[in-house]
Write a structure and sequence with these properties.
This protein has helices at 2-30, 51-62, 81-88, 102-115, 162-166, 191-194, 200-205, 210-223, 236-257, 272-278, 284-301, 330-342, 352-365, 368-379, and strands at residues 68-71, 92-94, 121-125, 262-266, 305-308. It is mainly α. A five-stranded parallel sheet has the order 2-1-3-4-5. It is globular, with a radius of gyration of 24 Å. It starts with a helix and ends in a 12-residue tail after the last helix.
């Protein structure tokens, strides 16, 4: 009886463990994310759209293809690495992560600098996440960027990959441009993302898109509030210091540690309506401008840091340039890189006061009430697009 028990126990364990080991072997051979190696069997290199996981494979298996990176959020995912390489020199790869906060990007930067210490340049989007300074949960992908290669197999036990691995199928994406490091995670090639460019009429037409309705509601709420930019509360100084510490920990430390790497820091020019919300908060705008001044002063301290900002432009007043209150059209991505090349919009301690003065004047003079009235009138008249979306 005991012998039979041991026998069947071994059979039971084998039937469970053997398939797991077999799947691990299959995952290693197929390795669609290129975590362990370049594709076998002359399979095409295809980049999966989730940059947080795919970038590990890019660094492990494709790092010889670039000496510089574009690293930000959706604000610069549409920036062509080929265009930047031509303008700034070097060979760039765009590894930007949608919604990637500074602390999330630090996980990747730590790993990248271990693998490739001689990065020539980094174009980095300086998004507004520093205002909240909340630390993101990176546990679902950070293990791909540690020194333990065995735990990397966990990614292939995600239901996204199991069937693909078992069938030995590659990740064939509809957009062939995602086969290169030019802008593999771009969104401008997706119709659902670019449908709302064109102004108020387009926003109203696509009001069934949740992000558009949220944007219009935000503008409506903003239009009812008074300007408070000159009335910071007692928490302002502490909040500003928290933002500075966040930036120091997750960005400035790399600028200090790698003086031979050029850091081109771009502050994204959000739609003016978003900044109109900032100035109606007691602290948001003041933290924003405080950090602009902080970065401008740091550019004097670090020779490898150049800081660019664009809020003194009329571009931000035109809603047709934006698909929502944050995301601008691809022409701005090209303009930003040309500005770096030509030395425009560079903010230093010498011009930061003038820049902030102009930026404040433009947002204070922005007629948010008129814009909201236009939106509300058309909301009740214009037929909306029937597609529901949550992007």
């Amino acid at each position: 009886m005991e012998k039979n028990y041991k026998k069947y126990s071994k059979i039971f364990l084998f039937t469970i463990i053997a398939p797991i080991y077999l799947y691990i072997i299959i995952s290693y051979i197929n390795d669609p994310l290129m975590i362990f190696h370049k594709p076998f069997f002359n399979r095409d290199v295809v980049l999966y759209e989730d940059a947080r996981t795919q970038n590990a494979g890019v660094i492990n298996s494709m790092s010889e293809k670039f000496d510089s990176i574009i690293f930000g959020t959706s604000m610069i995912q549409n920036t062509s690495a080929d265009f930047v390489s031509k303008k700034l020199g070097g060979t760039f790869a765009n590894i930007s992560m949608s919604g990637g906060s500074f602390d999330e990007r630090a996980v990747v930067l730590d790993y990248l600098f271990k693998k490739k210490k001689n990065l020539k340049s980094i174009v980095y989007s300086f998004d507004g996440c520093f205002i909240d300074s909340d630390i993101s949960n990176t546990s679902n992908y950070s293990y791909l960027y540690d020194d333990n290669k065995f735990n990397d197999f966990k990614i292939y036990f995600n239901d996204k990959y199991i069937l693909k691995n078992i069938l030995f199928s590659g990740f064939k994406l509809k957009n062939e441009k995602q086969l290169s490091l030019n802008y593999p995670y771009n969104w401008f090639s997706h119709k659902r993302h670019i449908a709302t460019f064109g102004g108020v009429d387009k926003w109203v037409e696509y009001k069934s898109y949740k992000r558009i309705m949220a944007a219009m509601n935000d503008l409506k709420e903003t239009s009812t509030k008074k300007i408070l930019i000159d009335s910071p509360d007692e928490n302002f100084k502490d909040q500003l210091e928290t933002s500075k510490k966040y930036i120091e920990k997750y960005l400035i430390k790399y600028i200090e540690k790698y003086p031979n790497t050029n850091f081109y820091i771009i502050m994204p020019p959000y739609f003016r309506g978003r900044f109109a919300k900032y100035i109606r908060s007691q602290n948001l705008a003041n933290i924003h401008y405080g950090i602009v001044r902080y970065m401008a002063n740091l550019s004097d301290k670090y020779k490898n840091l150049k800081f660019y900002a664009f809020e003194d432009m009329d571009y931000l007043d035109d809603i047709s340039n934006y698909k929502d209150t944050s995301h601008y059209n691809i022409d701005m991505n090209n303009y930003q890189i040309n500005s770096i090349k030509e030395g425009r919009h560079l903010i230093t301690s010498k011009n930061v006061d003038k820049y902030i003065k102009i930026s404040k004047e433009k947002v204070i003079n922005f007629d948010i009430i008129k814009l909201n009235d236009e939106i509300q009138k058309k909301l009740n008249k214009k037929k909306c697009h029937p597609v529901e979306d949550d992007i």
